[in-house]
Specification:
It contains three helices and 23 strands.
Length: 280
């Protein structure tokens, strides 16, 4: 989906990413080969998690769904163990439960991916506005990437149009050194136990040809109403340095606390989160 190579270090909470955008194919291929050779295949099945959805990725997703060769599903989808789909597959606005095989790329937009034991995807897997369950029990031939931010789009007939990124709340302060804002926003909704996460903190981006971006968010998970005890609080820190003047490459570091589901609930994520947020 994107010319970005990332190495996930599953041994700790820190995630080191090397992002390549628009660089020569030969150079990108050399980096990919070196990272894959240095990392066990099992580790690559752990998702590379990102909070914000970059515009260039969103536009690639829309082009992917508008491609007539993409096998497209809308809403809840189930592919049983006995079934094999050949070609790239996209799922819109629904949970996909995969028990069989997809011989191609899988993109899930605004929904979760549930992988059963023995499930297989030969290409890359990209999940936007959702999460992945059961990755350790499945076989993924390419890179598994997850973006927390939902894709904002409108649909006219069979075609999708990207409507722009999420706009954080908070005024932007400009200076010769760069720009900054303090913002509030919601993260990816959790199940009925963890509730709806509210994220707050500064975003700073320096000026110049190779800007440094810093994000530091506190996370309130709203489990116990207005309580601010330790179990309800988390954090997410991002440092990303652009390289080569045009942002063709970048190196970044993230450190975060993360809540993962331990079982599948009968309620949808939205129903569970709203119930926790307003009633519990």
């Amino acid at each position: 989906m994107e010319s970005k190579s990332k190495r996930a270090r599953a041994a700790g909470a820190a995630l080191l990413t090397l992002a390549l955008r628009g660089v020569p194919v030969a150079f990108a291929a050399a980096v990919v080969v070196s990272l894959v050779a240095a990392e066990p295949a099992a580790a690559r099945q752990h998702p590379v998690a990102e909070a914000d959805l970059p515009r260039h990725v969103a536009e690639q997703i829309v082009a992917f769904f508008n491609d007539p060769t993409t096998v497209r599903f809308t809403g809840a989808t189930s592919i049983p163990a006995s079934r094999t789909l050949r070609g790239d597959v996209g799922v819109l606005d629904g949970v996909i439960r995969l028990g069989g095989e997809i011989d191609g790329v899988l993109v899930v937009v605004n929904g979760n991916l549930e992988l059963e034991r023995g499930a297989s995807v030969t290409g890359d897997v990209l999940v936007v506005g959702g999460r992945v369950i059961g990755a350790e029990e499945a076989s993924i031939g390419g890179t598994l990437t997850v973006y927390e931010e939902r894709l904002r789009y409108v649909q006219r007939g069979e075609r999708l149009t990207y409507t722009g990124p999420r706009q954080p709340i908070g005024p932007i302060h400009e200076s010769p050194l760069g720009r900054s804002r303090f913002t509030f926003r919601t993260g990816t909704n959790y199940n009925r136990v963890e509730g709806l996460p509210v994220m707050f903190g500064p975003i700073v981006e320096t000026s110049g040809r190779n800007p440094l971006r810093i994000e530091g968010f506190g996370i309130w998970r709203s489990t116990s109403g207005l309580s601010l005890q330790g179990e309800e609080l988390g954090y997410s820190v991002l440092l990303e340095q652009s390289l080569f003047a045009r942002g063709d490459a970048g190196i970044g570091f993230t450190l975060h606390s993360e809540v993962l589901p331990i079982e599948r609930w009968g309620l949808t994520d939205v129903e569970a989160s709203l119930s926790t947020f307003f009633l519990h």
